[in-house]
Amino acid sequence: MAKKNYMEILKASTKLGLTSFGGPTAHLGYFREEYVVKRKWLDDKAYADLVALCQFLPGPASSQVGISVGMLRGGIFGGFLSWFGFTMPSVILLVLFAMLVSNASFDSGWIHGLKIVAVAVVAHALMGMGKSLAPDLPRIALAVAAAAAILLVPTAWAQIAVIVLAGIFGYYMYRKEKAPEAVKLALTFGRKTGIAAWTIFAALLVGLPLLRPFFESALYAIFDIYYRVGSIVFGGGHVVLPMLEREVVPGWMGPDVFISGYGAAQAVPGPLFTLAGYLGQIMSGGWGAVIAVIAMFLPSFLLVIGTLPFWSVIRTKSGVQAALKGVNAGVVGILLAALYDPVFTSGIRGPVDFAIAITAFAMLVYFKLAPWVVVLVTAILGAMSYAFL
Questions:
Q1: pLDDT by residue (tens digit) across 137-181?
Q2: What is the value of pTM for the model shown?
Q3: For residues 341 and 348, what is the distance between their CA atoms, to the nearest angstrom?
Q4: CB 3.0–4.6 Å: which of 89, 93, 159, 193 could bond 189 by disulfide?
C-alpha cells in the first residue's frame, strides 16, 4: 500500500511540476484541483489549513503545501516525493538555461529582454501581494516604511531587521483580533520528530555562518547562502529576489546575469525558488546547482515537519497571527524596494525598454496571457530593441 501511495504522489506531483505555470497563487489553485477535487486526498477545510500553515512559515508557500500534502498521504518520504516531482522539471530547465548563458556566444540581447520582463513580473506580483497582505492604512504605511528603509540601507541585515520590526508592529496593532479555529491533521509523526526538525533547522541557521570562515570552499559558501535565504524569506518566491541579490551580486555574478535568470524562471512551471538551480550552476557548475537547490528547500522541509504536529495549537494564538500580518506587510515593502533596485535599474535603459515593460505588464494583468507567452514576447522585443537601439 505504501509503494502504491508513493507512486501516486510522484505521478501527481510531477504532473503539477510540468504544468503549473503562473506563480504561487496559481499553484495553490492547481493543487486544490488535483489533490482535493480530483484525487480527494483531503477535504477543503484541511487544505485551507495547510495553506494557512505554509503562509505562516518562511519559504515557498506553494512548495510547502505540496510537501505537506505528500506528508499527509505518505509520511516524510511522501513529502520528499511530492517536492521532487513538483520541483525537478523547473530545476532542470533553469540549469540548462544557465549553461546556455555561460556560453560566451549566447546573444546578450535575449538577456536584456529577460531583464525587462522581470520588471513587469515583479510589478504584477507586488500589486497582488499589496492587495492581500497590506489591505489597510497601517499595513500600507508599514510597507512604504519598509521599502524606504531597504532602499536607504541596502544590506541583508537590514532586510532581516525590517521583518523583525514589522512582526513587532503587527503584534501590537492586531493582537486583539480573534484567530480562526484549527483543523485536526492526521500525521505519521509526532511532536518529538517536530522538535528534532526545529533543532536541526536552528543549528544549521546559526552554525553555518559561524563555521564558514573555517571552510575555504565555494560549495560550503553556497550551502550557507541558500540555506539562510530559504530560512528567512516570507511572502513567497518573488521576495527571494532581493535577498539573493544582496548575497550573490557582485561577488559571484553581475546584475545582468542575475536578473536574466529571474526572468527565465517566469517562463518555466513550478516554484520560483528553483532559481537557485540557475544561480548555483553559474556560481560553481553542476555541484553548485545541486547544493543550492538542496540548501534552498531544506529549511522548508524542516519547518513543515517541525510545525505540523504543533499547528493545531499555534493556529489559535491571536498574537502569532497578528505578528504574521505585520511581517507580511513588511515583505510587501521589501518587494517594492526590489522593484526599483535591482529590477528597474538593471532592466530599463530608456523609454523603449519602459514601453516594452508596461506592454508586458498589461499582457499579464489585463489580457491574462500565460507567463511563458509574456516572457517569450518580451524577450523577443527586448532583443530587437537591444540590437537596433
A1: 999 999 999 999 989 987 767 877 888 899 899 999 998 887 666
A2: 0.79
A3: 11
A4: 193
